[in-house]
Amino acid sequence: MNVVVIAPHPDDETFGCGGALLRHKANGDSVHWIIVTEMRQDAGYASHVISRRTDEIARVAEMYGFESVHLCHFLTTKLDQTPISSIIQKIAGVFEVVSPSIVYLPNRSDVHTDPMLVSPVVSGFGASLLSVFWSMKHCRKPISTSTEIMHFVQMYMLT
């Protein structure tokens, strides 16, 4: 089974559904990571901060064993200034390659603008997919409960 997690920012995949992703890997599923935004120097981020973030992304990708990592390169905290068609085009391009059967999206009621925008944009064009939302109150078909992923959460905390 092909699983895609869409993270507006690197770390959203872990906070949102890290245990479920580890469960998918343990079940032999192919898990793919889409990172929607990035820090850039032209937006005021220091090069050492950007470099550290790049290293963190590589380590997290290795720890989860993601089959692929796709970077959309939109500016973090400025996604609301990006044309929705551009966001759709980037994510749809990944969907064409990966053909996911499960997609994890950020909670549409997140207080930050980037996750608030990503969730409805993707759920709008991905309605034919089996979508699983991070927030259980928005969940169409949950794949796990806290007891089903507790071993994986504990394993993650030890690394």
Describe the protein in words.
The chain is an alpha/beta fold and about 160 residues long. The protein has one domain: Rossmann fold (3-Layer(aba) Sandwich). The chain is built from 5 helices and 5 strands, in the order βαβαβαβαβα. Helix 1 links the parallel strand 1 and strand 2 (about 30-40). Helix 1 (about 10-25) packs across helix 5 (about 145-159) and helix 3 packs across helix 4. The model is unreliable at about 125-145 (pLDDT under 50).
Strand content: 15-25%
Strand/helix succession: EHEHEHEHEH
H/I helix tally: 5
The number of distinct structural domains comes to 1
- C-alpha Rg, in Å? 15 Å
According to CATH, the fold-level topology is Rossmann fold
SS class: alpha/beta
Shape call: globular
CATH class: Alpha Beta
CATH architecture: 3-Layer(aba) Sandwich
**Unreliable residue runs:** 127-147
Read across the widest sheet, the strand sequence of neighbours is 3-2-1-4-5
Full CATH superfamily name: LmbE-like
Q: Quick check: average pLDDT?
A: 81
Number of strands: 5
Label this structure with key terms.
single chain; Rossmann fold; five-stranded parallel sheet
Summarize the SSE layout with pairings.
Layout: E1 2-7, H1 12-26, E2 30-38, H2 47-64, E3 68-75, H3 84-98, E4 102-105, H4 113-125, E5 130-133, H5 146-158
Quick structural overview:
With 159 residues, the protein is α/β, with parallel strands linked by helices. The protein has helices spanning 12-26, 47-64, 84-98, 113-125, 146-158, and strands at residues 2-7, 30-38, 68-75, 102-105, 130-133.
